[in-house]
Design goal:
heterodimer, A: 428 residues, mainly alpha, ABC transporter involved in vitamin B12 uptake, BtuC, Arc Repressor Mutant, subunit A, two-stranded antiparallel sheet, 2 strands, elongated, B: 297 residues, 12 helices, globular
Chain lengths: 428, 297
């Protein structure tokens, strides 16, 4: 716990630089990742991330030192090359995109590994620490490195801000963007360059192997909370930043530990929580919505069945047993009793010795469903010219969905008809 | 002798991977293979912690199940959370792989595995890691037995299920109408891929195995239109890259697995340029000849 306070008091200036560096790196890649995510090119980032390894090794072999600018240039070149090759392979042969990505990713990485092991066995003393590019080391971000990587990160974010509208357009609808006169190819090129740059800087903190997560996961998490691209970009940057902060902390408490996996674990945890708990889009929220809809449909079908029975006997408020209801329409027993109890609790039904009876509002609700069903059947046969014996199925579904506004329009359009196509009365 | 054992083990692994890879690339599931090979890592570490060894059949089955679970998880995020497929793959495998690396770091003292092994395997140690029976008889390299076992299972699987795999790959709708369960064969194939990546893990690591899955299959795909031929050519390429890769690694004093993958990449490049039917160069020549003919006429 001591180290926790020590870290977050930022007493040590190196802590500040490591923290700022890590946050900048992770949030800038999250910002760029938002657009690759929206373009459904998320896995391309994975290929670029793996492909920068041979570039780093080559830059080291040629220059003999670990100057971050030189390594970044090397990484940039092979990262770019990998994207070009994926494009060429998919365009010029029958190899599909996913195979091309997997192929380029693994072959470039293999070449990188061959070079890296060759360098390591070569005994050049300067090479120690080159392998921290594999799994990332936020702690290595000190002094001039922070400045270099920080500047690139800021450039990334500023560029995205400047070209926000264009990037957004090509992510969703590049044909439309073209029609608007936006230079689509140039913007595509810009996004590709930004992706490579984001990878090249991000690997310092996260490492080449898990870098893909920094491009994909914050965007995927943010997507669950909003439909607005601007908000999504900010949120992705924020979530990425949190994981960067934790990465810096881990680097401080356990210097031997690679930071990449921790950063990825944190951002993935945030993403998993978003997948499950986000209101509206999350798995749980969707499940609840679905249950609600299922219950509503069940309720309405049951009230409808009761109304039909009442119509037949010309007594809408007669008490019915479950057998009576089942004689009209089949429901699974357990579901039927559950629904009856629920409807009673909500005040649509009353019950006495397992006989069930409409209340006034229950009758109205059942009547409305029956009315909507018959209005829709009439509409289909009159305006869509569907034969009367084919309209029932469709009406079964739509009766649960029609809104009061639509109901009024239907009534108006059909001029408050008396009967549906099956010559049954439409109750008002 | 050591060279022979290493090349033999490499070839056996490469044949297993190449054969499964043919199905993966035709099903457009190459990246799912990538995801599985990363995601089995925590399974291997946990199985190792529980059993104390990494070459038992239980490790292969246990960690292999995690691979199948990964495909479930991808499917779950895609279907239930409506996450687009590429992102579902990307989120799932990076998360599990990160977990695996952290487990490795935390239990570093108790697990005889290190990050280097995860990255590019230790096929060079194959001749040293011998399987010695209780009575003291040296039976040969352990990895050879494991990979041999996996190859036999794979060959058996493809032989028995050839019709089903073939149909569900090329025409799933037709397969379903004649009563073949597309889902069952999907998961059986995923199970085979998981098992194979786990078994290859020691020798080539979690990431380079992807190259063995994809590169020979993709190269063979450019060389033939017949599926059976594709399987045979891919397997042949697997053997060739193991041998050539070994000598390249010796020459450069680098990782053998890295060199095998490099050779695989070069072969693909050659096929891409010079394949008689699909190669870019011949296609261009053909185009030019046609254009000349038109001009002459």
């Amino acid at each position: 716990m001591d180290s926790f306070f020590e870290f977050f008091s930022f007493s040590d200036s190196s802590i500040i630089s490591v923290t700022i560096g890590a946050i900048l790196l992770t949030s800038s890649s999250a910002v760029v990742g938002t657009f690759t995510f929206l373009k459904k090119k998320a896995l391309v980032g994975d290929a670029v991330a793996h492909a920068v390894l041979p570039g780093i090794c080559l830059a080291f072999l040629l220059s003999g030192n670990k100057n971050p600018v030189v390594l970044m240039i090397g990484a940039f070149i092979t990262g770019w090359l990998s994207l070009v090759l994926i494009d060429v392979i998919t365009k010029k042969s029958k190899i599909k995109e996913d195979s091309a990505i997997a192929l380029i990713l693994s072959v470039f990485f293999g070449i990188g590994i061959l070079m890296l092991t060759n360098i390591q066995h070569g005994g050049n003393a300067a090479q120690t620490g080159l392998d921290s590019f594999l799994f990332g080391k936020a702690a290595a971000l000190v002094g001039n490195d922070v400045l270099t990587f920080g500047i690139v990160a800021v450039i990334l974010m500023v560029t995205v801000t400047l070209f926000f509208k264009e990037l957004k357009l090509i992510s969703f609808d590049s044909n439309y963007a073209q029609a608007l006169g936006i230079p689509v190819r140039a913007i595509d090129l810009l996004l590709t360059t930004l992706t490579v740059l984001a990878v090249v800087t991000g690997i310092q903190a996260v490492g080449v192997i898990l870098m893909a997560a920094m491009l994909i996961t914050p965007a995927a998490a943010a997507r669950f909370w909003t439909n607005d691209v601007k908000k999504m970009t900010f949120l992705a940057a924020f979530l990425g930043g949190i994981s960067g902060l934790v990465g810096a902390y881990v680097s401080y408490v356990a210097p031997a530990m690679p930071t990449g996996p921790w950063i990825v674990l944190i951002i993935s945890g945030l993403a998993l929580m978003s997948f499950f708990f986000a209101p509206g889009k999350g798995v749980i929220s969707r499940f609840i919505e679905q249950r609600k809809l299922q219950n509503q449909i069940m309720d309405e079908n049951l009230l409808k069945a009761l109304f039909h029975l009442g119509e037949k006997d010309k007594n809408l408020f007669e008490a019915r047993t479950t057998e009576d209801i089942l004689s009209r329409r089949y429901f699974p027993i357990k579901k039927l009793t559950d629904t009856l109890t629920r409807l009673k609790r909500q005040g649509f039904l009353t019950s006495q010795n397992s006989h069930w009876k409409f209340t006034e509002i229950g009758k109205q609700k059942g009547q409305r469903v029956v009315k909507l069903h018959r209005l829709w059947e009439l509409y289909l046969s009159k305006y869509v010219k569907i034969a009367p014996d084919h309209v029932h199925e469709d009406a079964e579904t739509i009766e649960h969905i029609i809104t009061p506004e639509l109901e009024a329009q239907l009534e108006h359009l059909l001029e408050y008809p008396e009967q549906d196509p099956h010559a049954e009365n439409i109750p008002y | 002798m050591d060279a022979f054992l290493i090349i033999l083990t490499g070839s056996i692994i490469a044949i297993s991977c190449s054969i499964l890879g043919c199905f993966l690339i035709l099903r457009r599931m190459a990246m799912v293979g990538d995801a599985i090979s990363h995601a089995v890592l925590p399974g291997i570490v946990i199985a190792f912690l529980l059993t104390g060894t990494r070459d038992s059949v239980w490790v292969i089955i246990g960690a292999g199940l995690l691979g199948v679970f990964t495909t479930f998880l991808i499917e779950f995020f895609h279907k239930k959370a409506r996450l687009q497929t590429d992102a579902a793959i990307g989120v799932t495998f990076t998360w599990l792989f990160a977990l695996g690396i952290i487990l490795l770091s935390v239990f570093a003292g108790q697990v005889d595995l290190d990050q280097d092994c995860v990255l590019y395997g230790e096929i060079a140690y194959v001749p040293i890691d011998l399987w010695i029976s209780e009575s003291g008889v040296v039976l040969g390299p352990r990895a050879l037995y494991i990979s041999g076992f996996v190859l036999i299972v794979n060959l058996f699987f493809v032989k028995i299920g050839f019709k089903q795999l073939y149909l569900t790959t090329f025409d799933p709708a037709f397969a379903a109408t004649i009563g073949i369960s597309v889902t069952l064969w999907h998961y059986l194939l995923m199970g085979a891929v998981s098992m194979t990546t786990v078994a290859s893990f020691d020798s080539v690591g979690a990431i380079l195995v992807v190259a063995l899955l994809v590169a020979p299959a993709a190269t063979a795909y450019l060389l033939t239109d017949k599926f059976r031929n594709m399987l045979i050519i891919a397997a042949g390429i697997g053997v060739f890259i193991s041998a050539a890769g070994y000598y390249l690694a010796v020459y450069l004093d680098g990782s053998i697995a890295g060199a095998i993958v490099t050779v695989a990449g070069i072969l693909f490049g050659l096929a891409f340029l010079f394949s008689p039917k699909e190669g870019v160069v011949f296609k261009r020549m053909l185009q030019k000849r046609e254009a000349d003919k038109l001009k002459a006429a």
